[in-house]
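Page 47, continued from p. 46.
Same chain as before, 105 aa.
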Amino acid sequence: MEYLFSYGTLQSKEIQMQVFNKLLIGTEDQLTGYKLKGLQIEEEFGMEDYFVAMPSDNPADTITGIAFAVTSDDLIKADQFESNAYKRIQITLKSGITAWIFIES
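Result:
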């Protein structure tokens, strides 16, 4: 089992059903040393506003989100869902869990 840390869209039950065809199980966690930055992505009907995680110069910066337990197949589905404005890397959360996160490309 692996973990995927979500700070945005993938927390939505509707999006989880669309992407994974199931609801994910997770626990709240935090990522320190990162911050969120606004990002515009071109969607089918125009530009949409999203957020992207990026490393911060301030180690006190924190992103709150959910660490979801996922399979390797789920990670492939998440990769297909996320825009090429994001890349997936592994990080260590405040809880000590190692998780995947989508950050700025």
